[in-house]
Write a structure and sequence with these properties.
single chain, alpha/beta, TIM Barrel, 8-stranded parallel β-barrel, two-stranded antiparallel sheet, cytoplasm
């Protein structure tokens, strides 16, 4: 997929990786606008195509008392305002068939969560909106098996599809990234590496997912070296107080230097 088909995406001629970045979940309008504005400045500085990410709802929760959102329509309206205010594309996850047409009215890319990527009705519903569909690789799936999820989108008369690796289960409470999967998936789809979710430590006895944000740059660098098309990074200006996935998010104050170093690596890699 040529990412230039995504509405309002910039810097597509820069021969750079593209970036899906933002908070895990939409917590408020002020929070979303602040994060989007700061990432946009960084992406403009380093000529990185940027899609703002924010979940309008979090359905995959370990505990019933975990934060799930501020209200579907309210969060979607915020995503729409972010897109219109900064003239940038936006992406959000969907969890149920009826979410597809609803969210498609507000965002440019529909994302299928890793736990749900084998749900045919959900994938087809997303594809039938005509929006770009981002398929997160199941933690339980091989890279090669993702071609079947991609084919479901293609068979729904939608060629706007990409896949995102977010790690593979390693025992009960850890994930690993098998970088052999990047060239394998790039054979059949534009491929993104979800850096922050790959560093989760799920299934903790507390019911709150842990993480290793200290390894974010390590994973991101390896993705760029292995020619990944895009990076997915969740970021927040105060991860310790984020309402979802704070344990593995990147502190926003570190994003610019990370992107600077990654774009420098990309320049080197483009020579080979």
């Amino acid at each position: 997929m040529d990412i230039s088909v995504i509405p309002n995406i910039k810097h597509t001629q820069a021969d750079n990786f593209f970036l899906l970045a933002g908070p895990c979940a939409i917590e408020s309008e002020a929070m979303a606008m602040q994060i989007a504005e700061q990432i946009l400045k960084i992406s403009d500085t380093y000529q990185v195509p940027f899609i703002f990410k924010g979940s309008f709802k979090k359905a995959n929760r370990s505990r019933i008392d975990s934060f799930t959102g501020i209200g579907d329509k309210k969060a979607l309206e915020i995503l729409k305002k972010v897109g219109e205010t900064f003239n940038i594309p936006t992406v959000t996850d969907i969890h149920q068939v009826q979410d597809a047409t609803m969210a498609a009215n507000y965002v440019d890319v529909l994302q299928i969560p890793a736990f749900l990527v084998r749900q045919t009705d959900l994938v087809v519903a997303a594809a039938q909106t005509g929006k770009v569909v981002n398929l997160k690789k199941g933690q339980f799936m091989s890279p090669e098996s993702m071609q079947h999820a991609v084919q479901k989108v293609l068979d729904s008369n939608n060629e706007l599809v990409m896949v995102t690796d977010r790690g593979t289960m390693f025992g009960y409470q850890d994930l690993i990234v098998d970088f052999r999967g990047i060239p394998s998936m790039r054979e059949f789809a534009t491929t993104v590496l979800d850096v922050t979710h790959s560093l989760q430590q799920p299934n903790q006895s507390s019911g709150v997912t842990g993480g290793r944000p200290d390894m974010i740059e390590t994973i991101a660098r390896a993705g760029i070296v292995n020619h990944v098309d895009g990076l997915f990074i969740e970021t927040h200006y105060n991860p310790s107080e984020a309402k979802s996935d704070g344990a593995n998010m990147l502190d926003l104050k570190h994003l610019e230097q990370l992107i600077k170093r990654l774009t420098q690596i990309r320049v080197t890699i483009n020579q080979f």
